Amino acid sequence: MTTAPTRGPEAQEQSAVDAGLAYHRNEVGDKVFKGLSVGSGVMIFVILALVALFLILQAIPAFRAEPGTLPYGNGEFWPYVLPFIFGTLWSSFLALLLAVPVSIGIALFISHYAPRKLASGLGYVIDLLAAVPSVVFGLWGINTLAPAIQPLYSWLVDNLGWIPIFAGPVSGTGRTMMTAAIVLAVMILPIITSLSREVFLQTPPLQEQASLALGATRWEMIRQVVFPFGRSGIVSASMLGLGRALGETMAVAMVLSGAGVITFKLLTSENPNTIAANIALAFPEAYNIGVNQLIATGLILFAITLAVNMLARYIVGLQNAKAEGEKGKKKRA
């Protein structure tokens, strides 16, 4: 019977030194990683604060300008910017209304209905669609979508013109608020679809199998299990898509024949413009106080986007709290 050789004092001392060096290296690595993580997080707030500070400082001259002295609109700031605020919110709402049901349907098809090979390929195509530049969507909207859909607009005005949003006169080019909303919907569809798909795939399989085992159909299982589990994720995805639609510039500027009006009509040639598109179109020719006026409208858009994100976080927090409360009730029962 052999025994392991005992280590001498020098070997034990060397082993302790090696262990100390390894611990020191790990400690230094942890400190560096923590510093980078904290610095990156702080940098986000610093950049956001600097952007807000820049917008506020540049917008103050426009806010303080005497009535009738501003170069755009009738010389006053708020009557000038209100139609653009309306156009921004109206076009984004329409885009969200069109995109969310389609996105959820595609996400459900990929996650619960399509074969695995088809689902992976379709998911790749959806993700690739998010990388298409907005100017390409704008060109597609002008050259393909608007001429193709204009006969439908004429039919809607002729047959459903008694509905205020479909009232005429119809646009002869198809460059209307409805066309801009469809283009925006196509642009935000990949974002909402990708996030909703990932949320649906995270649904606990045991809950899905339990619902099916109790006799539920696949659609009933989705309504009973998948939708409640992914409710907060759907809201988050929709709000991210809304943020993209609010800030979209080139596609709207190319497709929409915008003006400083407030109207809910979708098919006429006179449509409200958006803040981002108006800045893109007017900024190259702006000078002096006109630059401040346009930057002030950008500050309004920044505030709207920030408010939308805060509202999204609040809604998601309510949904999570409600879900936790339901789990607590089930455990107590």
Automatic annotation (TrEMBL):
CDD domains: TM_PBP2. Residues 85-312 form the ABC transmembrane type-1 domain. It comes from the Bacteria. The chain crosses the membrane at residues 35-60, 80-110, 122-142, 162-192, 249-267, 287-312. It is found in: Cell membrane. It is a multi-pass membrane protein. The keyword Thylakoid does not apply. It holds the Pfam family BPD_transp_1. PROSITE patterns: ABC_TM1. InterPro entries: MetI-like, MetI-like_sf, Phosphate_PstC, Phosphate_Transport_Permease. Keywords: Cell membrane, Membrane, Phosphate transport, Transmembrane, Transmembrane helix, Transport. Part of the binding-protein-dependent transport system for phosphate; probably responsible for the translocation of the substrate across the membrane. Belongs to the binding-protein-dependent transport system permease family. CysTW subfamily. This is Phosphate transport system permease protein. It comes from Ammonicoccus fulvus. The lineage of its organism: Bacteria, Bacillati, Actinomycetota, Actinomycetes, Propionibacteriales.
